[in-house]
Amino acid sequence: YVHFHLISPQVQRSAESVVLLDIFVSILSLNLSEPAYGADIAKLEYKLVAGEHGLVIRVKGFNHKLSLLLQLIIDHLSDFSFTPAVFEMIKEELKKTYFNMLINSEVLAKDLRHVILEHGKWPMIQKYQRLMKGISAESLLSFVKAFKSQLYVEGLAQGNIT
């Protein structure tokens, strides 16, 4: 198991930044689905998660090929690109996801509790409102550039790793 947490101060600046991180992670996962198919066949697993302070990369599997999968993820992260159609599709999916979270009372209560207890946590309603106002592809590209320019990386490796 290898986990990396890419932390950036850009993430918690505004509700828009949190939404942009969600869009970024979704597009990155979509971009990786085809090139990482071989890794899935070889029983290597990966997961990209939009965390509270940045991107979490989790990979697990046999250690002799794990570095190749991690390198593939890093390559796609450094050369991030997308088409306008993919951007619009991910935005629409995220709108549905946020809306479904807002109409679920348990999720909404948990979100409110986190907003009260955690400094810098943006409520789901503000993220949904920001997404509904509209987010441009240019703002995503500038966010990704700023995100990558101010990274702090934490890592954890567990198992037979050299």
From TrEMBL:
Domain Peptidase M16 middle/third: 1-129
Gene3D superfamilies attached to this UniProt entry: Metalloenzyme, LuxS/M16 peptidase-like
GO molecular function: metal ion binding
Keywords: Metal-binding
Organism superkingdom: Eukaryota
One Pfam family of this chain: Peptidase_M16_M
Protein name (Swiss-Prot/TrEMBL): NRDC protein
Originating organism: Anseranas semipalmata (Magpie goose)
